[in-house]
User: Fold these one by one.
Assistant:
Number 1:
Amino acid sequence: MVSAYAIPDPWRKRAVVGFSFLGLLNLALIILTYENTPDVPHFADLGPFIWRGSITIWARIVAVAENHILQTVAAAAAGVVLGSASHFGYQKWQARRATSVPDNRPWLTSYRIFDLADQGLVKTARNAKDKSAEFERELEVLQIQRENLRPKDAFKAITALQEPPSPAMVELQKRESEAYRKIEAQRRQHASAYAGALEDIYEKLRNGHLVAKGFVGSLSNSPNEIEIPAAHWRVIKFNNDYTEAKGQGMEYVGITVAKAK
């Protein structure tokens, strides 16, 4: 064969083919010689050998399968493998679904998250705040009027303090006290409705009606935005501007909130 490669073209290819043919012919003759030689291994003996080996292996497999301890271990292992595979497959399906369907939901942050709260409570809180501001303006007017009733002369002002207040001054003081009472009542109503709206947001985040996204710890430590697990809202709370939340060693920043799909 080596000598054939030394022959120049076009005879090189013919020589390689010829020597290959002679090698195969030699192998066939050797096999035929062994098949007709007694007391040596024959190809004809290969079939029964494989059959006997297959029966032995099958018998051992059956014996192992009938062992109850091994059955239990095998079933547990199969359950773990199938469970892990199904969970991994579900996660991959969810990831593909999330990336294939565009998310056109409005994601709100800071005080705008109250657009997702119970609007009856939000309206009550806003009305109370507006009424409180209205009563505060009324109080400012009453204070100006009361100031105008006081004598401008210093001596007369001191003398007036020692005398009973005039009926007009008494009326202004009464109206001022009433304005203070109304302002305090509206502030309490605002705080109560506002707290109720915030608790409504927490409840919707916990039960999955709302979803929130954010970064774990800080942007430098966790550059990838994740969806905050609903169960975490049982222990974490918003900060004052509703852009961060923390509790029990967990902290999220850059939070946005949207309705669940």
Number 2:
Amino acid sequence: MPPLLSRRRLAALPLLAAGPALAAPDGSLSRVRDAGVIRLGVQAEGTVAATRAPDGSFRGYLPELGRRIATGLGVQPEFVPVPRGDMLGLLLQGAFELGLGGAIASTWLALTALPTTPLMQFQLVVLTPRDLIVSGMAELSGLRVGVLDGRSFAEALHEAGLEQERTVIHARWEEAAEALLRGREDAVIVPGHHAREIQRVAPQATARFTLGEFWHCGVVRMGEHDLLRAIDVLLHLLRHEGQLSMLHRAFFDRDMRSGRTL
């Protein structure tokens, strides 16, 4: 595995993160570095994005990326488990400094918290039983459709044209899989990494079409621009050195590329 970041670039991080000379420091980066730890909110849902191992450790793409961010900041990572739908609420309550994933890039998100540079790309996938063939959103009209909980996820589905009053909301992908398996729902719409797990436990679930490309961002609290700038610099360097694409490809079998954001 390549080194995290070159020493020269790590040495330049404080200067790069300082931003314009006229920007008054807000103390968010200093607090993290003084504490020696950054708390990272993660939705560990048993997918390649993030999962909790039997020993309690966090594994997957987002935890690995979080470790690299922490190392770049010169601190230790501390992972905080986040239930689906609670990422922004717990962030605003101060449960962690950086939320990893669980927030889809959107105008609404930018009005609620400070989003980082996009760090994960995915597609929304429509799954139906093998004997129910659909090829577009119009054909979902009148069907029972399951979706995952979360405000930013709901915003993405609204942007894709799904009428929310026709949906059943699930807190976990396992619930959506069981509903499809038992015939309680005709279709479910989930991110690609959740679709992979649903098809593993319910092989008759068939991917019919996708609703475009979306991005997960990290999030920090409003006003914490020092911390945001430092994280964005690190993400830029990881992308420039090819490490972000390498990680994304290793866990999702696809490269990060330019695509649709809300």
Number 3:
Amino acid sequence: MKKIKISEFGKIVIDEPDIKRVYNKEELLTLLKKHKGILNNEIIDYLNSLINLEFSVVKGNISDSDRRILTDLELYRKIAMYNISNRVVEVLKPYKDSIDVSRDSTGLEIYGSMDNRSFKIFDYTYESVNFDSSLFPYYGRDDIGEVSLYRTISDRDALDEEKMAILEKLDILYRIGRHDELGETSTYGGSVNESAYLNRKEIRELENRYTNIDNKDSLTKNEEREIETTSKFNEILLADFGLTMDDFDYSTKDSTGEEKVLIRNMPNMNVRNNIKCI
């Protein structure tokens, strides 16, 4: 049964049934006490600092090899989830009048706002990043989850690259369309007619995106707000994570091709920085 609740800064959210619950501070401190004498003092102090939100679990206060060992410990995963979920809210408290925070049993989302416009700046997904949680609700329950940051920038060179990529994709789709019209193939599955419809739909979307980029001369006020808002919070959160752009392992494109995604792989956890160019 779904429950209505109020988030940290007054936003109403829907709370789904608990699939992967984040423990509270008191529960974690009680669990930590039970591990004294089992774990060494250095590890106990580190985990205690995470519970007290002294720094982010993403930050390199521990080696990857030690972190990898800790990920086998259920207590560490519970503490890490608590730390990520609450440390980011603590860091952004000075800006509570310009952000909205919402939680449910699968994750946390934060939006930054300016002049009544909201832009996503952060989300944390507790569930496995590889499977549909509605089909595999308990798969990956040992994962810490995936942390995503969001930033919008103005980059003409990146847009020109996107235009070239669109033209290359359109060339392929035009050729596929001609085959579909002749009844020679069903590229998208289903009937030839269904395939032809999906092909035309994808072509229209790419042509519209190309036109929007090509006609772009200057930034709108809303785009300026989006760049300013997302950039400010992106820099704050990256600093708290102890990361720079150079610390990400590799980059890729999202499914639309409109965003560059920088990815930092960590034991049982990914950090993604989603960069949208306008």
Number 4:
Amino acid sequence: MRLTQFGTYVFPLFNKRDLVSTGDTGGTLLRLPGGGAYDAYGTDNAPEGIREVSTEFEIIASTTAAVQTARDQIRARAGLWRKLWAHFPDGSDRWAWARLSKVKMERRSAYLFYQPVGLTFEIKDPGWNGTGHGAAWYLDSGLYLDAGLYLDYDDTITLDGSPKTATITNGGNRTVTAAVLGFRAAGNAISGIRFVCGSCDWTFSGSVAPGKVLTIDTGTRSIRNDGVDAYNLLTLNAGHTVADWLQLKAGANSVTITYTCAGAASTLTPTFYDGWA
């Protein structure tokens, strides 16, 4: 893989080198007085700490003014929070939100038309985001139309009978916990929504009016019913045994939605990105 751009800034390819690592997952074991240790995460993945990735490249220009302009463009991005993109050998492009934490430039008198640059980024979330599901894809991401991205996916689940069993596929290799679940009531109100996926089992006890949308953000743990906060109406059931509201394992995930609705046209649209390590 190679880092390709930060926000709208495309990294030069001259003598380019990248260092990409995961976050630290150590420190989860607690030493016990009688020997041995206790791991509170059991068989679950331990959370990653802040991870650092870095890239080095060279600026080459025909005039000293052009080199200085390039230096200024890079330094102006220090501290910014933008999407950091990476390109992989299979032709795919993945991204993660990152902050440019350090800009390093060695200055020598001989560097008239040449400048080595080192950039360090901090990323708070684990892994990389791959193909998007559920939401619209916009043309201002900085990528080209022939980059291998999909514009025509449709992951909407029609709630045409309760209980409704469906499959949500995470095409990556890392568990996804951040998704937005949009329940749209079409024609008739929908209420008493129970959502089960693996070790996740919860119920929204409220009612969604016809034509309105219930939005459950499992990453930020926020709930909006037609834009109004409804956090207090969600209950974790006895079958819910993990800390996350949602865990989409790599591959196909079976989900079961139980609800009350007089019609058969309401929908669930899960919006997320494939998770990659």
